[in-house]
Structures are given as structure tokens and as C-alpha cells.
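Morning!

As promised:
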Amino acid sequence: MKDKENPAGKVAGPGFRLLEYMTAGVLLLVLGVLAWMTVAAYSPIAPGAVVSDQQVIAVNVLLVTALGLVSVVALLYTRK
Amino acid sequence: MPDRDESPGDARGRPLLAECELKKPLKVLDIWALGVGVVITGEYFGWNFALKDNGPVAVLVASLVVCLLYLTWVLALTELSVAMPFAGGPLAYGRRAAGPTLGFVMGWSMFLECQFATITTALATGGYIAFLINPADPSDTVMAWSALATVVIFFVLHVWGVKEQSTVMVWMTYGAILGLVIFWGLAATNFRWDRIWTKPLLPADKGWRAVLDAVPYALWWLVMIETVALAAEEAHEPQRTIPRGLVWSQLTLIVLVVLTWLFACGAVDDPQRLGAADVSYPLAKVIREIPVGRSPLAVYGFGLIALFGMIASYHGMVYGTSRQAFSLGRAGYLPAILGMVHSERRTPVPALALCSLVTAAVVVAKLWYPKAIELALLVSTLTALVWYVLAIVCLFVLRRREPELFRNYRTPVARILPAAVVVLSIFAAWVYVGIDIKVLPLTAALYGGGLAYFFCWSRSRLKTIAPEEQTARQAEIAGES
């Protein structure tokens, strides 16, 4: 992310930017998974229409990871 | 109706604006309490409807999706609310980004969201009180009278003043969290992991469809957290207090959501029974069904503390509804009387009266329509999703057109995070199509009625002295020059 996108400017070091890129990537992955989930829910012949336990666990792990990353970014961003 | 006023900075406008100005006493702790308190009722009831036919794991996945939606949403919304700290948040965003029509649609959407959430919570509060009076067979009449008493008490409290109510809110929020901790402790005495981690994890006949069907009800965990945006006009240093208060309240709520789901579903033999339409007091029902619930102290003690949760949320929801009606009235989109405040206490009495009267009317109607709670819940969450999407569109439009507006605060992950809000909201709204209840026709009728009023009456009578109108017009003039 460019500096001009972060008016706070206090946490825009390379480490924070890397964290932001990782968060963005995981968020995109979540959106992709939700799209796949919707297709699988309404189309019995779609890949993944028969749900395995591993798929459910993987989706949960992905969502928890996204929540964790967004939370960390938000906390770093709003500290004094 | 007042005359149309075309002079934004004139001598008449300034005294009227000062008369309609709110106090600024809210700090980070108040914002945190407002954020947690206004939605903590979601932990006490409503989400349980998602369990029916879907099972605990589907509800967990849906809940995590909803938590992610709201975490990203509050961060993106903070950017708008800090840039435009007005009580009528969505009205101001839509008005400035695309004109009065979008401003009205967004303000009206949030008013409907808040009003129907208030109705839902008043009904559930009555349900919890009726359960306390007769746990074996709660009476509908007792429920209605209890809900009406709640409406009257909190109308008086809100008329009294914002500082007093924010102090009460902080203490009620602590009480509501204590109630959940007690629930977790009691439910843990009968907890079994295999009740949650079923074989298969999702119902075999529904698959991922179970997750989708659970989403509209899971939204109730956190819906109305954005009410905090309405507090920006009343917040001290909103650019700091709003984002910090919102983030901490959201993180607190995620922990509460997961632990409440875990212990509620793990404590009873058939968690799906908690999803029955007539169960508006699921946590109390769990306590009553487990061995420790044979003690009257456990049932009545928890039931009484649970009321803190209901009341804390009702309190915050009345706040949100009245501030939205106030701002729409102040700007002329709804009858101007709704934009008036008490001359000494500076509280929006007519807006509070409207909100309370509508809630009371539906409480009475519940006696003849048993599914009123479920219907009100779904209308509230659906109208919320409408303005979430529109607000992010406004954010992108204003970022491009007026980048200096956001100099004090810009959300992290600046492009992807707001885009995620839009996709997650559309994903959640999509599943309403399959819901077997009259939520879509009712919602369409409410939007139709509101738009008819706007186009036939208020569009030509907007008041330019309202801060949302003044700042939007000044921005338009600056853009033209």
C-alpha cells in the first residue's frame, strides 16, 4: 500500500505493509471460497458439492486466519 | 412543514443549527460500551433460529463469516464517520456522494434497521421476563406488558439525557457480559463436544446450503454495531475515539459470539431444538434443561442478569433509531418535528416518541402474529445489508472525488477491505431469497412507502441548514469553482 493511502502514517513501515498485503490476500481467498461455497450449495454436480469434514475445517481455519489478520492490522493501526 | 430554506450560512440558520446541536461527551470507553452493549442482545437470542435444520457447525461457519463482515465493515465505516461526524451518518454519506435521493435511501435503510432491531429486542425482553415469571409456560400477555413497560421506561431515560444514558450503558454492558460468563460456567457443567462436532459436520441433505441458510440469523449476532457511527457527532475527538472504540468493541464481541455458541450448543442433547420459532430465550432454556438448572437460583439468577443484556441492547437501539429519525427530520427528509430537541436537555424527544410508539404498536400486534420476532429480525438485517453496500459505494466515490476529506483517518488495507464488505454483504443478502417468511414483500413495501413520501413531499422541502446538507452543498460549490 502506498503512503498516501495511510494518513495515520505511524505504522506504515515495511513490516506493517507486508501484514497488509497478507491480509488483503487472505481476504481475497475468503471471497473466493464463499463464491465456491455458493456454487456448490446450489449445484449438486459442482466440485465440493459433497462436503467432507476436511473442507469444513479448512474453511473454518481460513475464516479464523482472516479474522486474526484483520484484527492485528486494525489494532496496530489504531494504537497511539 | 417549514418553508424551504435556501440560505446555508444566513443569520436564521445558525441559531437553528445551534438549537439542534447535540452534546459531545462520549469517549473511547463510552464508544466501546455503546458498540458492545447495542449488539450484546444478539448473544442472548435471535442467532438460535439459525440452528434449525442447519446444526451447530453450519452456524459456526456462518457466524465466522458474519464476524468477518462486521470487522471489515466497522473499519471501513470509521473512515466515513470520522470524515463526516454527523448523527445522520448514512444520510450524510449518501447526500454528499450522490445527492439527496441516495442520502434518503441510506438514511431510511438505517432507520428501518434500527427500528426493527428495537422492536425485536423489546419483544425478546418481554419474552425473558415472561420466562422468569413462569419458566414452565411463559405467557404472551405477560410478555406484551413487560415489553410495553420496557418501552416506556427507556423512553423516559433517553429523554433525560445522553451523558446519563451513556453511563448507564457502560454499567449495563458490564452486567450483560457478566451474564454471559455465568451462562458459560453453568452450561460447561453439562458440556459434551460430540453434540457440536457431529458426524457429518454439516447436514448430509443440505451440505453448504446449511451455512447459507444460517447466515441471515447469524447476522443478528452483530447487527447494529454501526450505530456507533451515529455517535460521531457526540464523540470527543471522533477521529481517535471512534476507530479505537469500534475495534475494541468488535474484538470483544467476536470472543462473546464464539464462546456463547460453543457452550449453548454443547450443553443440550439436541441443539437444533433451540432454533424453534417460539424460543426467544434460548440461553435461559439451556439453563433450564441441564441438571444445574434444577436449582431455582440458577434459573432465576441467570434470567435476571440476562435482562441486563436485553436492556443494554434495547437502550443502544433506541439511541440509534431516535438519532436516525432526528437527523432525517432535521434535514427535512422526514417531518421536521422529528428534528427538534428538548430546549434544556438537548435530547430528540419527538424522534424518541415516534420510535417508542412504533415499537409499542408491534409489541401489541405480536399477540396476533407469533412470528413477529423472526420477521422483525430479518427485516432489520436485510435493510442493514442494503446500506452497508451503498455506504461502501459512497466511500469509493468520495475517496476519488474528495481525497482531502479522509486526511484524518484512512482504513487499513484501503482497497480490498471495503471491497470485501461489499462482496460479503451481497453474499449475505443473496440467501434471503430462499427464506420462507414474508420478509421480502414487507421490506419492499417499507422502501416503497418511504420513497413515495420522499418524492411526493419532502424532496422539495429539504432544509439546507442541517449540517449534512450544509457540508454537502459547500463541497458541491467548491467542486464547481
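Confidence is low (pLDDT under 50) at residues 1-6 of chain A.

Hope this helps with the figure draft.
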